[in-house]
Each structure stands twice: as C-alpha cells, then as structure tokens.
Design brief:
Largest sheet: 7 strands, parallel
Radius of gyration: 18 Å
Number of strands: 7
CATH superfamily: NAD(P)-binding Rossmann-like Domain
Strand content: 5-15%
Helix content: 40-55%
CATH architecture: 3-Layer(aba) Sandwich
Number of helices: 10
Length: 262
C-alpha cells in the first residue's frame, strides 16, 4: 500500500468539484500540494482550507506553451513531483449533429491535449527520479458513449488509449499509471459544459444532481491510488454499466436507450 504523507501531489482543476475535494482529502493525508486551474482566486480559497504545504500554479489546459516552465517551478519549490492528477477538464451537452467542429476541437484541446502536454512536461522529472504516479480522470463516458456527450466521450476515450500505452512504456522507470472512471458526481460540470454553439449549458443535470458527492469520489480515488490500482471506478448504480456492457451488451444498450442525457 502506497503512503501519501509528504508526497508532492499536483492536481489540475483544483478550484472546484472533484479537484477541490481531492485537495482537501490529500491535505488530510499529509501530502504536499500543487493546485492548478485557471481561477487563481478560487485556488487561494482552496489553499487556505488545506492544512499542508501548498503551491498555487495557475494553469490553462488549452494553452500548453508554458507547461515546462510551470513544471520547473514546482520542482524548484518542492524538489520533486510524486503524483500528477490530471483532473481539469470540460464537458458538453449537445447532440453531435448540432455541435460545431470548434466545440469538438475545444474539448479535445482541454481534456486530451492539455493532459497529455502536462504529463509530457512532468514525465522527465519522474523518469529521472525513477518513481512517480500519473493519474488521469476519465469518465464512464470514457468506457461507453452517452447522449449529448459525443465530443466529451471522444476526449475521454482518447485519454484511456494514451495512458494505457504510457503505463506499459514507463513500467521500466517505476512510474505507475491509474485511470479514474467517475460516474455521476454532484459538481458543477454540467453547468460549465459547452452547448453545441460553444455557449455554457448553464443547467444542473438531474444525473449530476442525483450523483455521489465529490468527497465520496475523492475518497474512492485515494483508496485506489494507495493500492496502485490501474482502474478506479467511482459512482452510484450507473458504474455497473461497465460490467453489464461486457457481459450482456444487447441488454446494456436496451437499457441505455431509455436513459436521459440530462
């Protein structure tokens, strides 16, 4: 079982939702934190509630040009990077036929290319250390597609392919890789999601409203990381859809067709 005390943990999307809950939970574990998102003031509020050493690194996942410089700042401050949690991201609520290609590209830029770029900036540090743990927050939509989430689902599937390949390649350097698949979590992800024309969806989905808490999701993630799990699945009854799809695919799709995307 891996210990988190005194580990340097870098969390993106740390200003709210799952990222914020992870920051609080990791602080309780005694980890040293690097908190990133676009919202500097919100990060400061999170940091004030963390009883640990915290470094705030504002970061925009859609602009990776300074990721190497930001990584160097973390190393200069803490001396190492033990865990990188690629949590920051953006969702979508629109049918594919009504979604502009610009929105598809935006989702891929933030959710996939942003995570891949930051990982590639951090990877040389972990290779030199001969240790590290890379974590990517995918989604149940990274296991199967769902209504109103074509671009989101595509970006989350892309993460899975990238990090599963990376896991095989970096085992020789003692670098671990975990993929997290949350189901419905009660956060503001649907409110911040993009509509087909690029405007904010600005609605709390019933699925999100009835989902597990971000705190419960964070606990599931930490439990899995301590046990070096390759896949960490968190959610309510919807998480059993993964097993149902594998064993009874026709039944799975009959059930899925009756669900709502909101």
């Amino acid at each position: 079982m891996s210990e988190l005390k005194n580990k340097v943990v870098w969390i993106t999307g740390a200003s709210s939702g799952i990222g914020q809950a992870l920051a609080f939970a990791m602080a309780k574990e005694g980890a040293k934190l690097v908190l990133s998102s676009r919202r500097d003031q919100e990060l400061k509020k999170v940091a004030e509630k963390c009883s640990s050493d915290v470094l705030i690194i504002p970061l925009d996942l859609s602009n990776s040009s300074n990721f190497k410089d930001l990584t160097q700042k973390v190393v200069e401050h803490f001396g190492s990077i033990d865990i990188l949690i690629n949590n920051g991201g953006l969702s979508q609520r629109s049918e594919a036929a009504q979604t502009s290609l610009e929105v598809d590209r935006k989702l891929m830029e933030v959710n996939y290319f942003g995570a891949a770029a930051l990982t590639k900036a951090v990877l040389p540090i972990m290779q030199q250390q001969k240790s590290g743990h890379l974590v990517a927050i995918s989604s149940l939509s990274g296991k199967f597609g769902f209504f109103l989430r074509s671009a989101y689902s595509a970006s989350k599937f892309a993460l899975v392919g990238f990090y599963e390949s990376l896991r095989l390649e970096e085992e020789k350097n003692n670098i671990k890789v975990s993929l997290v698949f949350p189901g419905f979590v009660h956060t503001n992800i649907s409110q911040n999601a993009l509509s087909g024309d690029g405007q904010k969806h600005a609605k709390l989905d019933n699925n999100q409203k009835g989902g597990i808490s971000a705190e419960k999701c964070a606990r599931d993630i930490i439990y899995g990381l301590k046990r070096d799990k390759h896949e960490i699945i968190s959610g309510g009854s919807e998480k059993w859809g993964i097993l149902l799809k594998r064993l009874f695919p026709k039944l799975f799709y009959r059930i899925l067709r009756k669900k709502s995307g909101e």
